Amino acid sequence: MELWDSHCHLQDERYGADVGGVIQRALQAGVARMVCCGTREEDWSRVLELAEGHDCIVPMLGLHPWFVGEARPGWLDRLGELTRKQPLGIGECGLDFAIENPDRPRQEQAFAAQVRLARDLDRPLSIHCRQAWESLLQICREEGLPRRGAVVHAFSGSPEVARQLQDLGLFLAFGCSLANPANKRTPKALLAVREDRLLLETDSPDIPPRHLPDWPPEGLNEPRYLALVLETAARIKGVGVLKLAEQTSQAAERLFVNV
Ligand SMILES: [Zn+2]
């Protein structure tokens, strides 16, 4: 069984020298591919370096909505140049209106530009979205998506939004928060996602499974915990673990093919 972690950040400096161990432990746990998403220009070279050294890593580069305010002029041209040169995806990009004082127009501009780039080059696109669903749907409709589709990672919207996004050709990804018993909303959204549009992720080192009884307070998430997401998703959907593993791997292969 080859599992895909469809969204993680192995370049994160909190892993330090242990990143090799993180990758090894993931492979041992059956996570065969890890989609490593850049978040700002400063971490792009590290993402590329990791992908160069490890066949299991699928690289993506993007500008995350949290960092649009500090991006250096010309970032989009440099992203375009890097992307044309080699097989890589676009992301993490998106819209986050849940942060304090979001600069909505600037976020929308940066996001729309990255959607266009992914569409023009037909590359996979990884989207972060919080409390900005109307705007997300509008930009995806106006710009058009890559033919292969795109993914909204760590999906936190309603079942209705989940249906609208799937109608547009988007995949939806779920992570460890699904397994947190305090989270009642996400399992409902999961039930609105078709198996061929569903992806699994960890968003490592973030969103760790903090609800686990002996989870250390400062513990970092790792792609090896994907099995927990898979088992939880299978239980909620009432399908077999192996069946869901196969379906989600096939969905990931469709989205990330040739990258
Ligand atoms: Zn992320």
| Helix proportion | 40-55%
CATH class identity:
Alpha Beta
| Distinct small-molecule ligands in the complex | zinc ion
Shape annotation? globular
End-to-end gap? 20 Å
Global mean pLDDT: 96
Radius of gyration: 17 Å
Structural class: alpha/beta
CATH topology assignment? TIM Barrel
Low-confidence stretches: none
Give me the side-by-side strand order of the main sheet.
Answer: 1-2-3-4-5-6-7-8
Report the order of strands and helices.
Answer: EHEHEHEHEHEHEHEHH
CATH architecture field: Alpha-Beta Barrel
Helix count, DSSP H or I runs of 4 or more residues: 9
Q: Tell me the number of structural domains.
A: 1
Describe the structure.
The chain is of the alpha/beta class and 259 residues long. The chain has one domain (3-256): Metal-dependent hydrolases (TIM Barrel). Helices cover 41% and strands 17% of the residues. Helix 3 (75-85) runs parallel beside helix 4 and helix 4 (104-121) runs parallel beside helix 5. The longest helix has 18 residues, at 104-121. The mean pLDDT is 96. The structure holds zinc ion. Zinc ion (ZN) is lined by residues 7, 9, 37, 92, 203. Zinc ion binds at residues 7, 9, 37, 92, 203.
